[in-house]
Amino acid sequence: MYKEYLIKELQEQVELLQAVVSILVVLLSIFFVRNLYNLIRKRSYRKKHTDLVQDKMITDTRLDEQQGMIQFLEKNYQAEKNKLELMKSEFAEQLVNLKKAKTAIEIRLKEQSELGDYQRKALEKFADYKSIDANNTRLGAHFIKNVISHVYQNLEMAQEGSTTIFGFSRPTNGNQGVSLSIEALKNMFILLDYNVSAVHKENVTVGEEIVHLEKFIELLKFLKPKAKISLNMELGDQIIKNLKIKPTLFFPFLENALKHGNLNDVNSFINLKISCFNSNQLSYQVENSCETVAENEVPNNTKTPFGLTALKKLIQTYYPNNTLTHQIDGVDRYVAYLKLTI
Questions:
Q1: HEC sequence for 6-51
Q2: pTM for the full model?
């Protein structure tokens, strides 16, 4: 029984050992398979690693080449960029210079244009001034004709009234007419000389103008002996000596009174008044008798380029913002008034 027991015990141990061996064999098989698999995978990974290393080397080489190309391109780009910046700077500088040159040319052209306009206007104004001066510094042909005609009539009357003794003519009357005629001719020559020289003068003193105005008044008395002509002056010596005006400035008033006034009646008149307000203000007024007009009648203003019309242009040219008025005062009185700030 004991033997059987031992045999059975041994059989169980053998079976156990077989089972263990089987397990070990299985484990060894698994280990072997695992190691084989790992070896295969390792070899596969090594090959892949080698391929990857080679690829990396190739890639690194290419990257180095590309990096060098990039650096080369960057250098070229920077060089071109610098050239472009320099060109931009030069272009901007040239643009500024061109703008300056254009501005300078425009300014120059504007100055030349303004200078041309100024010269043209100055020339036109100078010509206009000279035309105005010529119109105002000339005695009217009608006035000169009247004086000469009156002188001729006086001399002719004096000659007709003379008697002959032993072949010589002796005037029996008209001596006064001859004297007046000679005096009138003298005054006319003085006025003509003053009139001619006035064209070349810018200004004359008030005193010089008044001296010749008095000669003009003498001629008016010669032409219109019935008219009462008076000159009233309220001027200081300094005004007479120092204040200067355009030559023959006072003459057109008297010519206007002679041409348009009624100076043939015993009650006819011309009243002149010259006065000053201060050292540079002057007033000149001429009143003369004229034909009686209705209260609502508008006087017919002269269109001649001489007389007060031309005088207005002279005042506007040389004495702007000053007053020159002339109008019918009442029904038989004409008043011309000039106020100047010089």
A1: HHHHHHHHHHHHHHHHHHHHHHHHHHHHHHHHHHHHHHHHHHHHHH
A2: 0.56
Q: Which of 143, 227, 239 is nearest to 191 (CA)?
A: 143
Fold for the domain defined by 137-341:
Heat Shock Protein 90 (3.30.565)
In the chain, count H helices and then E strands.
7, 9
Residue 249 in contact with residue 342, Cβ under 8 Å?
A: no
Percentage of residues of the chain with pLDDT beyond 70 = 82
Residue 254 has pLDDT above 90, yes or no: no
How far, in Å, CA of 93 to CA of 85, rounded?
Answer: 12
Q: Are 181 and 151 in contact (CB under 8 A)?
A: yes
Name the residue ranges covered by the structural domains of the chain. 1-136, 137-341
Write the burial class of residue 13 (CB in 10 Å: 0-12 exposed, 13-18 middle, 19+ buried): exposed
Give the number of other CB atoms < 10 A from CB of residue 223.
17
Q: Which residues pair with 228 in a beta bridge?
A: 269
Write the CB contacts of 133 (distance below 8 Å, at least 6 apart in sequence): 198, 199, 246, 314
How confident is the model over 269-323, as pLDDT tens digits?
A: 999 999 987 778 889 999 999 876 545 454 444 443 345 777 787 788 788 888 8
User: Which residue(s) pair with 333 in the sheet?
Assistant: 289, 329
3-state secondary structure of 321: coil
The string of pLDDT tens digits covering residues 169-212 is 444 445 677 888 888 888 888 888 888 887 778 889 999 999 99
Output the six-digit token pair for 328.
């019918």
- Contacting residues for 333 by C-beta, under 8 A, at least 6 apart: 287, 288, 289, 290
